[in-house]
Design brief:
173 residues; four-stranded parallel sheet; 4 helices; acyltransferase activity; Trimer_LpxA-like_sf; Trans_hexapeptide_repeat; alpha/beta; UDP N-Acetylglucosamine Acyltransferase, domain 1
Length: 173
């Protein structure tokens, strides 16, 4: 189960309550910063924008590819470790608005993690150090350190131990 806080709403669906949960001006500022960062080709500038204006926690030498979309409402709930790569057009969500409730949860991406292009990461998920997430994966639960996962629904393709065995075999060849 993902680690999210759940907030019940009455009457209209939870998206109608959006500006009771987050400031309109915060969303406007975040939108502008994210759009600039999505298109800038300079990784240091991108990380600086995320750290300073969105209060995201970004480790040294982590890379966000073109068109990555961090959560527009709660980007401060996103942490990315050192030397990780977030692939093209990946979406990282820290919130989800449903009919009768909305949920908010931290997203933690470890060190040396590779996230493939067009992946969606849902709120409340932790991706362990050294994990590899295949392109176009829906990350709907935690990913253990060193494992290789992929698909929709996401499945473990190789565990950390299997990845290490493959790596040692490849080095011998």
């Amino acid at each position: 189960m993902r680690k999210t806080k759940r907030f019940q709403v009455k009457n209209a669906n939870s998206l109608w309550h959006i500006y009771k949960t987050v400031s309109f001006w915060k969303v406007v500022k975040n939108f502008i910063v994210i759009q600039i960062a999505r298109y800038t080709p300079f990784l240091r500038v991108k990380n600086w924008l995320y750290r300073v204006f969105l209060r995201m926690k970004i480790g040294e030498e982590s890379s966000f590819a073109l068109m990555v979309m961090p959560d527009i409402m709660f980007p401060e709930k996103i942490t990315v470790g050192k030397n990780s790569v977030i692939g093209y057009n990946t979406t990282i969500l820290a919130h989800e608005y449903l009919i009768k409730e909305y949920r908010i949860g931290d997203v933690v991406i470890g060190n040396n993690v590779l996230i493939g292009a067009n992946t969606t990461i849902l709120p409340g998920v932790t991706i362990g150090d050294g994990a590899v997430v295949s392109a176009a994966t829906l990350v709907h639960k935690d990913v253990s350190a060193g494992s290789f996962v992929g698909g929709n629904p996401m499945k473990v393709i190789y565990t950390k131990e299997e990845m290490e065995q493959r790596s040692s075999r490849d080095m011998k060849d």
